[in-house]
Amino acid sequence: MRRLCFFTFFAVFAVLLPAGAFAAPLSANEVMAKSDAAYYYPGRDFKARMVMRLVSAGGQQRLREFTMLRKNYGPPGGRQKYFIYFFRPADVKDMTFMVYKYPDRDSDRWLYIPALNMVRRIAAQDKRSSFVGSDFSYEDVSGRNVNEDTHTLAREEKIGPRDCYVVKSTPKTADVEYSYKLSWIDKATYLPLREQYFDKRGELYKVFMADEVKTINGLPTIMKRTMKNVQSGHSTVVEFEKAAYDLGLPDNLFSERFLKQPPRKWIE
Amino acid sequence: MQKFSLVRFSVEHPKLVVVLSVLITMLFATQFPKIRTDTNPKNMLPATSDVRVWNNEVEKTFGLYKDVIVLGIRNEKGVLNAATLASMQRITDRILGLKGVAARDVSSFGTIDNVTMDRAKDRTGDGGTLEVGPLMPDAPKTQTGIDSLRRELYGNPLFIGRIISGDAKMAAIYVPLEKGANGKLVADAIRRIVRQEGGQKAGDEYYVAGDPVARDTFGVEMFRLMAVFAPIAGMVMFLIRYLMFRDLFLSITLMMDAMMSIIWSMGLLIGLGFPIHIMSSMAPVFLMAIATDSMHIFNEFYFRFRQLRDKKAAIIETMRAVSRPVRNTALATAAGFTVLLFMHIVPVRIFGGLVAFGTLCLRLFSFSFIPAMFTFVKAEKLEKIARSEDADSDKTARFLKKLAGFGIRKPAATVVIGFLLFMVAVVGITKTNINNNLVEWFKKGSDVRVADTVINRSLGGTSTGYIVSISNEDGYIKTPAAMRYIEGLQRDLEKLPVVGKTTSVADYVKRINFVLHGNDPKYFAVPPTEQMIGQYLFLFSMSAKPSDLDNVVDYPFEKANIWVQLKTWDARAMRDVIREVGRYKAAHATPMDFKPAGIAYFNLVWNNEVLWDMVKGFMLALIVVFAILAYDFRSVKWAVVGYMPLLFTIVLIYGVIGFSGKNFDMPISVLSTLSLGMAVDFAIHFVSRFRQRLSESLPAGAGGVGKAQIAEALLWTAQRPGKGILRNAVLFASAFSVMLFAPLTPYITVGAFIVSMMLLSALMTIIYLPALITLGSGWLFKGGTR
Fold it and tell me: Percent of chain B having pLDDT more than 90?
C-alpha cells in the first residue's frame, strides 16, 4: 500500500515536472544564445578604439591600444570578420591583425608585421590561448560557439540592481583549460555581467567583470571590462574609448591589401 | 656555599626534591601539544634578509616560481613512442589536477606552446603559415604523428635539454608549485600518479627531482630521524650505563635526568611559541650526551662510598670533590652554546639558547635530583658495586694508568709526536673544500639522489640560477645591442662544465626571426633593428603563454632574466657562474649590470651565511672557553695546558676532513661550535682533580712540588677521574654512533664527528695532558720543582 502511494507520488511528480519546465521563460541554452548575440553580434558592424592594460601581480603595467572593426555576415552565431589595428606599444604601431570567424571551424587569421613588411597567415590551434599577452583568450575576444558547451541554469541572482540568470556552462570536449564556467547574464540586456572560470581541480581561477555598461546607438555595450586570473594575480582591463555601431564598414576592408595599409578613416 | 646547601637539602628531603622535579617536568610537558614545526631550511635566513628580499623581487618581476618539481620520464628505447606519449599525457592531465600545483604554468609536451612555420600550407605565396598552438595537443597514435612531433621538438632549440633530451631517451615535465605548497606531498602524489598511469611495462622509468623534493623530503626525514634516533640513543646509553654499574635504579636515574632536561628545555621553547627547526630537533640528542657528564658524580660516589661506608656522608663528600669541575664543565658547555645567541641566524640562536638552558637544567639536577636519588639506593647494593670499583684491581683503571704512564715517562716524545700530527693536520686543513650540496645530503642510492643524477645526465639540469640583467633605461632590453650581449653571455656561460642550458629573451627573438623567415637558419640570429625585436616579442606574446615572456623580461623591458640550468646542486657551481659573469662583463663593456638570483643562488648564500656564522661562533666559543678555563683554574698557564687536548682534537679532525676531500659544509660548520663546549669538559675534570689531589698530598707550607709527587698525582687522576672521563666519552660516543646508521649524510657526519671527537679528546686528555704537565712542571708550578 505504502509502495503504491510512493509510486503514485512519483508518477504525478514526473508528469508535473516538464510542465514546470515549460513554465520557465527561457532554457539555459536560449539564454546563452541570446547572450552570444548581445555580446558578440550586436549591430551589423562595429568599431571601437580600445585601451588594454595588462597588470602583473606586482602592479607593473603594459599597454596595448588598438582599433577593432567587426562586421557580421549572417545572423548572430554566424560568420564574422575582425580587423585590429595597433597603435601601442609604440614599436608595433601599424601592426594589423585580421580574423575570419566561422561558426563550425577554426578561424582564419592574418598578421601584418610592419618591420618586415610581411603578412603571415596564422593557423592557431589553440583558441584558448592568450590574446596579445592578456588574460583574455582569442575566444573571449571573438566568442565561443554556444554549442560547444552544455548549459544549465544554476540559479537566478541579482548583481547590484540587475536581475541575472546564472548559467553553468560545461565544455563538451576536454581540450579546454576550464572544467566549467558560471555566467551572470543580465535578464534585460543579456550581457554577461560576471563570469567565473573554474579549473580542472574545480578551483576558481579567472573572473570576468563588466565594469561599465553604456548604451551606444541604442545597443547596450560593455565599455569597461576586467579579466583577472585570481591564481596568478595577473589581470587585464579593457576600456572602449570610442565605440559605434552600423557604420557601413566596406567588405573589401577585411582583406590582405588593407592589412598593410589600412584606411585612416576606419582606424582613427 | 649555596650549591652545597642545595645538595644537603636534597639529601635531607629527597622525596620532596624528586616530587618537585617531577611536578615541574609535568608542567613543562603540558606545553608539548602546542608544538609547531618548520622543516624548511630556507627559514634559517630571516624573511628580511637581503637574498630573500631580492629573490622575492625577482620572482615578482618575472612571475617566477620559488619551487619547481621536475618529473623525468626515461625509456632506453626512446620516449617518442605512442605508449609513452599517451601515458605522459595522462600523467600531465592528472598532475594539473593536483592541489598545490600551479597548473597554468606546468611545462610538458601537452601544455607547452610552439610556434612553427608550415611551408606546406603556403597559400599566401610569401613563405607559409605560422602555426601556433600546443606542441602536443593530443598524444599521437600513428608513426606520422610521432615523426611530426619529433620534428617539432628537435626543430626548436628551446625544447632540447629542457623537455626532451638530445638522445630522445628522456622527457621532462616541470611542475611549479604554488606558494606554501609542500614539495614532498606533491612529489608523493606525482609518484602515485606515475604508478597508476605510467608505462613501466613498456620500459618507462620515472624520476622525481628538484629542490622542493630534496628540501621537503629532508625536512620530513629529519623529524622522523629525531623521533627514532633520540629514543634509540637514549636506550643505548641506558644499556651501556647498566653494563658499567650493573644497577638498574641508577641507570634510570641518569635517564630521568636527561629526559627531564629535554622536557624542560623543549617545553620552554614550545611554550614561548618558537617552532621546532632542523637544528632544535637535534637538541634532545645533544642534551642526552651532555647529561653523561653526571657520570663523574657516580664515578666518584662509589669510590667515596667505599671509604666512608655512609651514604649521606659519601654524597656530600662526593659533591664537595666534584662540584667545582661539574659546575665549570657545565659553565663551559653552556657558554659554548650561549655564544650562538650572538649569531646572525635565528634558528642557530634558538638552538644555542635551547641547549644552554638544557645544560643549566642538567647541572641543577646534578646538585639536587641526583643526590636525592642516591639516598633511595640500598646500602648493600652500593656495597656490591663499590667493591667492583676498586681502582687498582680494575682493568680499565690499569689501562688508563699505563696510558698516562707513557705520557709521564716520555713526555718529550709524546709532545713531539703530537706536534708532528698537529702540523700534518694543519696541512690537511689548508686543503679544505668549502661547498654545500643539498642533494648530496641524501645517500647515493636514495630516490632523491638517483633521480637527480639521471635527469642531470640527459637534460639541462635540475638546479636553476638566474642572472638578472639590469639596465636603467626603459626598453633597453629591446635593443639589438642588449640582445646580442645577452646572447654572447649565454654562449660564454654554457662553456662552464656545470652549466647545462641557458634560456633568455634573446632565444625567443631568434626563434621568431627564424620562423618568420620560413625556417631559414640564416635568420636564427638577433635581428638588426629595435623595431623588429619589439614586433617579434609582440608576436611571441601572441603565440605563447604570457608567462613565457614574463619569465625572461620585465614589463618596461628594462631588465632581462637569463635562466641558467645547472647540472649540480653544488653551491660552488653558482659561484663559478657568478665569477664568469663578472669576467665576461670585465672583458665586454655594457651599460647593463648583472645580479644573480634564484634557488641556486639562494642555496649558495644561505649555506655560506650559516657556514661563516658558525665559523664566527666557533672563534668566539674558542675565546670564551679559554676565558672560562683561565677563570676556573685561576691561571692562564693552566688554561693553556687544559686547552691543548681540545685544540689538538679539533685540528686533527678537520685535518682528516681536509685530506679526505669531504666538503666542509654547513652541518660540519655547525658541529664545530657544538663540539667545543663538550670536548673541553675532560680537560677541566682532569686538571681540576689533578691540582686538587696535588694540593691535598702536599704538606702545608712546602716550598715546591716534587717530580715524584706530580707523577703520583697524575697517575691517580688518570685512574680515578680518568675512568669517569673514559666512561663519559664511551657513553657519549655510543649515543652518537647510532647516527652512523642514519639515511641522511649530515647525520652520519654528526655521528662520526662526535664519536671521533669524544674518543680522541678523552685519549688526548689522558696521554697528552700528563706529558705536557710533566714537561712544563717548572713553568707551571710557581715554586719550581725540587
Answer: 16
Q: Give per-residue pLDDT as tens, A65-98.
A: 999 999 999 888 889 999 999 998 888 889 999 9
**Closest CA–CA distance from residue A126 to any residue of chain B (Å):** 5
B555 phi and psi angles, rounded to 5 deg: -65, -45
Contact A115 B531 (CB under 8 A): yes
- The answer to whether the CB atoms of A125 and B549 lie below 8 A apart is no
Q: B207 has which bridge partners?
A: B72
A19 has a pLDDT exceeding 50: no
* Structure confidence by residue, pLDDT tens digits, B243-275: 877 778 778 888 888 889 999 999 999 998 888
- Give SS3 for B737: helix
Nearest-neighbour CA in chain B from A234: distance (Å)? 9
Residues of A in contact with B556 (CB under 8 A): 60
Q: What is the pLDDT of residue B578?
A: 95
What rounded mean pLDDT belongs to chain B? Answer: 84
Q: Which residues of A touch B123 (CB under 8 A)?
A: 121
pLDDT of residue A15: 44
- Nearest chain B residue to A205, by CA: B104
Instruction: Name the burial class of residue B595, with classes exposed (0-12), middle (13-18) and buried (19+) by CB atoms within 10 angstroms of its CB.
Output: middle
Q: What pLDDT does A70 receive? A: 93
- In tens, the pLDDT along B739-770 reads 888 888 877 887 888 888 888 888 888 888 88
Helices (H), B311-410: 311-338, 346-367, 369-374, 379-388, 395-409
d(CA B80, CA B218): 34
- Closest residue in chain B to residue A135, using alpha carbons only: B546
Query: CB contacts < 8 Å between A and B, how many?
Result: 136
- Tell me, what's the ipTM? 0.85
Of B123, B531, B550, the CB nearest to A56: B550
Model pLDDT for residues B653-705, shown as the tens digit of each residue: 888 888 888 877 777 776 776 677 667 788 888 888 888 888 877 765 555 66
CATH of B1-61+246-390 given 3.90.700.10, 1.20.1640.10, 3.40.50.300, 1.10.287.90: 1.20.1640.10
At B715-724, the pLDDT tens digits run: 888 888 888 8
Cα of B429 vs its chain's centroid, Å:
20
Place of cell 622525596: B15
B433-434/B663-664 β-pairing: parallel
Q: Which CATH class is domain A25-267?
A: mainly beta
Q: What is the DSSP letter of B157?
A: T
pLDDT above 50: residue A20: no
- Domain ranges for chain A, please list them: 25-267
| CB < 8 Å to A113, chain B | 516, 535, 539
Helix (H, G, I), strand (E, B) or coil at A223: strand
- Structure confidence at residue A170 (pLDDT): 94
Contact between chains at A200 and B535 (C-beta distance less than 8 A): no
Q: Is B103 on the interface with A (CB under 8 A)?
A: yes
β-sheet bridge partners, residue A182: A168, A196
Secondary structure of B260-314 in HEC code, one letter for each residue:
HHHHHHHHHHHHCCCCECHHHHCHHHHHHHHHHHHHHHHHHHHHHHHHHCCHHHH
A60–B554 C-beta distance less than 8 A: yes
Beta-carbon contacts of residue A197 (< 8 Å; ≥ 6 apart): A178, A181, A204, A205, A206, A207, A208
Fill in the amino acid letter for B347.
P
CA A133 to chain centre: 16
For residue B597, the model assigns a pLDDT of: 92
Q: Which residues of chain B have pLDDT under 70?
A: 1-4, 39, 41, 119-127, 386-394, 670, 673-674, 677-678, 699-705, 782-786
From the CA of B286, how many Å to the nearest CA of chain A? 45
